[in-house]
Amino acid sequence: MIEKETTSTFNKSTGLPRKRFYRARAHSNPLSDSHFPVPLSPSQFDYSLHYPQLVPAASDDDNPKRIQFADIGCGFGGLLVALSTLFPDKLMIGMEIRDKVSEYVKERISALRTTNPGQYQNISVVRTNSMKYIPNYFEKGQLTKMFFLFPDPHFKEKNHRRRVISPHLLDEYAYTLAVGGIIYTITDVEELGEWMKGCLENHPMFEALMEEELENDLVVKLLTSATEEGQKVARNGGQTFQAVYRRIAPPL
Amino acid sequence: MGDAQMEEGDNTREIEVAPALIAVDPAQRSVAVAVGSDLRVYDLIGDCPVSLVDDSAKPFHSDSIRAIRYDASGKLFVSAGDDKLVKIWSTDSWFCISSVCCEKRVSAVAVSNDGLFVCFADKFGVVWVVSLKGDAENQALADKKAAPMLAHYCSIITSLEFSPDGRFIVSADRDYKIRVTVVPKNPLDGAHEIQTFCLGHSEYVSCLDFIHSPDYPHGLLISGSGDSTVRLWDVTLGSLLDTCEIGSKAELSATDGIEEDPCHAVTDLCTCPNGTSVALAVQSLKGIMLLNCNLSAKTLSMAKVVLVEGETLIPTSLGTSLSEGLLWMVTGISKLQGFDHSSLARVRAVSFPEDDGRDAEPVLLRDDEIPGGQKLLERLQGSVSIGNDVFLAASEALKTSMRSLLIKKQYSDEKREFRKRTRNDRKLKH
């Protein structure tokens, strides 16, 4: 690991939030790399650490800024970087379980903030297992966009239940998304694409976006072009399968 | 780190101890105790032990029972556990009216307030539901198929409860989370609408109960956890109303030196017959702890500790009929290694008398004062007399078992590499 002497905008180089708000596992081995802090509840998430310029510490704001976009499995951060300038007033976060990859994204954002003063202050990354801990980070109906770009296909049937889009996990994503919020999924694996579309279609709290809406949505084009994964697929002339759905109120 | 130490973890899985459980009919017509795979019921109306009748393909339970309960009306009784079976019994005839198969071992059960649906949770985090609609009593049914209703991703669900107003089902897991889900019109289609999460515990959540009264029909949720706290929640909003730190209570320091650092994890809790107290079973406490819950002020506070003198009784399960003024407790274990008897149980009861309309002090009943008396104790405890040292050992074994089940292990890098040595799916590095 490169020893970090990063620029001062990101004061703590590991980006780990203040421990007292985060649970420490009993008997945890600090050498274990599967040990990462998770906020006990969304109110314990330290915004001032991730967005120091936009959310100053200890602000007793009545209308505090909250994260609205989340990239689940953000990989190397391509989408976040592209979205940052498109929606400069929205706070966004990437969630990535891989240690080194999330470190990379941290450094990337840090560097971008340095070389582009005033920009990229609205994006950040957190190392976490989003399939278990999304309710720990976001309040009910907090997000307006959720992204699942090129998720792990888990080819074996016995592992299908580990897929990040599944009938049960969609309950949690529906909880986290505001009514009217949008979930974007894309993959280059056809079977997975059909699976994700099927799960969303069958879920009572999601409905598909119409063709026109898809065409008018700036973000949809980014699904294929913004990420390293998407660019690789385009280079190889591969096909992609997307499913974009809106969170609706449950039927009575 | 020697090889022997590394192998140890794999072997202990075969002989997994299980705590004894107790459940009481809402009108106290009967009391049930489960010790391992043995289900023991005593009929308090007829004042005699009950003989269970089960002629299903897999009669009775063949492995440790992990959850038992009566439904709100007392007409049904449900038992489920490590044999991956959920058995539904009619309490009139004590005939098994239905056996439902589960893919995984079952860790919790609940029955909807109207008695129409039975929900059970498996150790992979899925909550299943089975419908009892249209079934006549005492009629044997073909094995029912359960539908998945909701899930906590890859987490063991430790407790399931329906809210008293029937609007919500609450599920708690080992990853510190409590989920409140709206009960839909047809649960078989899945319960997709999450009302809220109750987040705040910093260790596994072990038990849930609602406390309510005619003035407060929606009730408040109470949860106990391995983090040694009991918390009070509003389930509509998911807000934490109050927290009671069990670990810091001085009374617990008198634990007869079982260990240097006594563990104050809450293992079970139960709303008391007086409607305002909550009884807790706490690891290392030889008795029960009582908390006061004020429904209008929405607070929890320490009331007292009821110690069981003269014997080592760290309760593993609590139950009450609410209407009859008695809190029942059991301590017990099955598959205990190293002693003459591998399964044992001891039942006691605490009464909450009313004295001129005011609540008097809770009283631990003597064996001859318990309803059903000696006959009940013989049936539920088994007829062998067990020494204190065995109960002590049982308590330690259960503590270890609970820790290894509910607290995620953290491995050092070398140990993790060693554990991966038999993997056959390594990707080739490029």
UniProtKB/TrEMBL annotation, chain A:
Reaction catalysed by this enzyme: guanosine(46) in tRNA + S-adenosyl-L-methionine = N(7)-methylguanosine(46) in tRNA + S-adenosyl-L-homocysteine
InterPro entries found in the cross-reference section: SAM-dependent_MTases_sf (IPR029063), Trm8_euk (IPR025763), tRNA_(Gua-N-7)_MeTrfase_Trmb (IPR003358)
One of the record's GO cellular component terms: tRNA methyltransferase complex
Keywords associated with the record: Methyltransferase, Nucleus, RNA-binding, S-adenosyl-L-methionine, Transferase, tRNA processing, tRNA-binding
Pfam families per UniProt: Methyltransf_4
SUPFAM superfamilies with a match to the protein in the record: S-adenosyl-L-methionine-dependent methyltransferases
Record's signal peptide: none
Record EC number: 2.1.1.33
Pathway per the UniProt entry: tRNA modification; N(7)-methylguanine-tRNA biosynthesis
Compartment annotation: Nucleus
Catalytic residue positions: 152
Keyword Transcription regulation found: no
Cited HAMAP family: tRNA_methyltr_TrmB_euk (MF_03055)
Family: Belongs to the class I-like SAM-binding methyltransferase superfamily. TrmB family.
Protein name in UniProt: tRNA (guanine-N(7)-)-methyltransferase
Gene: LOC115730973
Automatic annotation (TrEMBL), chain B:
Keywords, alphabetical: Nucleus, Repeat, tRNA processing, WD repeat
Subcellular location: Nucleus
WD repeats: 61-93, 198-243
Chief location category: nucleus
Origin: domain of life: Eukaryota
InterPro entries: Trm82, WD40/YVTN_repeat-like_dom_sf, WD40_repeat_CS, WD40_repeat_dom_sf, WD40_rpt
Gene3D superfamilies listed in its UniProt record: YVTN repeat-like/Quinoprotein amine dehydrogenase
A Pfam family annotated for this UniProt entry: WD40
Biological processes per GO annotation: tRNA (guanine-N7)-methylation
Sections of the chain in a coiled coil: none
Cellular-component GO terms for this entry: cytosol; nucleus; tRNA methyltransferase complex
Pathway: tRNA modification; N(7)-methylguanine-tRNA biosynthesis
Protein task: Required for the formation of N(7)-methylguanine at position 46 (m7G46) in tRNA. In the complex, it is required to stabilize and induce conformational changes of the catalytic subunit.
Family: Belongs to the WD repeat TRM82 family.
PANTHER family: TRNA (GUANINE-N(7)-)-METHYLTRANSFERASE NON-CATALYTIC SUBUNIT WDR4, WD40 REPEAT PROTEIN 4
Subunit structure: Forms a heterodimer with the catalytic subunit.
Name this protein carries in UniProt: tRNA (guanine-N(7)-)-methyltransferase non-catalytic subunit
Originating species: Rhodamnia argentea
Gene name as annotated: LOC115752046
